[in-house]
Amino acid sequence: MDLQKQPAPAASHPTRKSFGMVALILGMLLVGPVMIAIGVGLRMADDELLQTGTRTTGTITEVQDGVEASDLDFRVEYRATDDSVHTVWESWDISDRPSVGDEVAIVYRDSDPGTAVVEGYGGEGEWMTGLGAVFTVILGGTGVMMLVMAARGRSERAQARRAAMQPPAGQR
Known about the structure:
Layout: H1 16-52, E1 54-64, E2 73-79, E3 85-91, E4 103-109, E5 112-118, H2 123-165
Antiparallel strand pairs: 1-2, 1-4, 2-3, 4-5
Helix pairs in contact: 1-2
């Protein structure tokens, strides 16, 4: 009986390609949650300013209409207690378009009158949190799908290597 020595299976070593893929997938999985965390931080800062800031009235001086929701902005001009004039940009909801000349409530930091929020509007934190949630769903789902596909490919390659290692049926 002539038994030929089969070569030992090659050790499975991670490659740069697999490290790169893992890094890409981890990055995709983290983008949304990081954006949500930043958005929550911004919202908390806005909430703190709304509770402790100085209130005044501002006048809308410009309204930007855009094709995309991220382009729906308006500019408000307001005067601080030190008689300095400041502006703040805010986003508006498609269902609640402001008009030039409208007056809105402004809350600003007395120690830094340039830091302000428009009362009743979401601010950057709300936008960032919402976008982070969308990215979490889309990129997270894509990342999980890529992980599943990579695991399935590794499993199929391992099965093919094991099958290649088995001697033909007549030589057992």
